[in-house]
Design a protein that fits this description.
Two copies of one chain form a homodimer. By secondary structure, the first copy, chain A, is an alpha/beta fold. Chain A has eleven helices and six strands. The first copy, chain A, has a six-stranded parallel beta sheet, with helices on both faces.
Chain lengths: ~240, ~240
């Protein structure tokens, strides 16, 4: 294991790493389905919504569309999926509420306890593509004890663009080497590592039904590989 | 009293409103003075350092110098004051440590308990000219339970420029009218109010030896005037 004694901040991917987006979106969809008699496969809907995430982000990263908040990208995808799944008759308020399901995701069972331990020694910051408002609302609801809400919106660049990582370290007043990026996605850690961050991979075996190709970690390139945040705290000696 | 039932976030000025900058700077100066046998009046030094604050900020606000972090503005002022007070022989590390005294200020006695009550119902965000790193370090040391660290650095505009307030509300995903600006300085509240924020003035009678002119509130223009954060929580019914 690498020497991580000079780490001062842990920066976290959120969707998939801290919270379980898939079961949260399914739960919110099913609740709406019951209320409005919409009989579709909400698991398939959740996967389709997440499936549009990277293609939409790519359009921003490539400059094809101007900077836009993740909430608005989620909404563009949602409008498209409502049509594709044949869901009609929802009011604007109902669609907006469904779009904000991403603000109401539940943490993985170990997340709050693990973060609470880690917060004793480290600055804990989000380094997420989520908006500040989304991450604040999620944290208030779920009890996530962040010290700072950072990432794409304040950097105005989406991960894995290097500016997202570099700006987050700069806001924390730290050299990237004093920041440990924590994520359940290999490409996020590769990008953070290329900016000088240390890296910790968290296995979130239940995030996907089928894990995307190329998202299996090359363990030798990572500083830490852990099962969950309890093991992360153990390994960091907190 | 105005109806404040639709307030969702409280945004706080920090220096003077949440923390007692004057006694903190004096304490850190006196500690350095004892260690290095520097016999000056550290209260006068603290007042002189704070006295350079608005003139330095004005240079940024007026575009005379490019955007620069508050830590660096503090350092420019500090270098000047070290010369003026005839303080020599400090190492770079010692000067940097003194400059970061602003990261180590103590909260007013009611602040942590009041914020902890207010956090139950409201999003609590900084809306300070301090840097993110400064505010995070201060919060970790003092136990200030912020939900988000916002303000000048993420807005890239110093208060009282309207962009600082507008960007903070936008990051929170809220209309300004759903944000209550809490400050011990009238001009800060006037500027926030002009952006549509609701306003709460906190008397911090010990912040200054002599309160600056024009910093006495026109009470009729404010939504709330309170003695401290305990009264603020009382008045908001938390």
């Amino acid at each position: 294991m690498a020497d991580l004694g000079d780490i001062r901040a842990l920066t976290f991917d959120v969707f998939g790493t801290v919270v379980d987006w898939r079961s949260g979106i399914i739960r919110e969809g099913e609740a709406l389905g019951r209320a409005k008699s919409i009989a579709i496969d909400w698991a398939r809907f959740a996967d389709a919504w997440r499936g549009l995430y990277q293609p939409m982000l790519s359009k921003v990263r490539d400059g094809e569309i101007a900077w836009i908040k993740l909430d608005d990208l989620h909404r563009m995808s949602l409008d498209r999926l409502l049509a594709e799944f044949g869901i009609a008759g929802l009011s604007e308020a109902e669609i907006d509420h469904l779009n904000r399901a991403w603000h109401r995701l539940d943490p993985w069972p170990d997340a709050v306890a693990g973060l609470t331990r880690l917060k004793r020694r480290y600055v804990l910051a989000t380094l997420s593509n989520g908006t500040v408002a989304l991450l604040v609302n999620m944290a208030k609801r779920a009890g996530l004890p962040w010290d700072a809400i950072l990432g794409a919106e304040v950097a105005r660049h989406y991960k894995p663009q290097p500016e997202a990582y570099r700006a987050t370290a700069a806001f924390l007043g730290l050299e990237p080497a004093r920041c440990l990026m924590v994520a359940a996605h290999y490409n996020d850690l590769v990008a953070a590592g290329a900016c000088g961050f240390r890296t910790a991979y968290v296995w979130r075996r239940d995030e996907f039904v089928v894990r995307p190709k190329n998202d299996l970690p090359a363990v030798h390139e990572l500083d830490l590989v852990v099962e969950d945040f309890a093991e992360l705290a153990d390994r960091l000696g907190v």
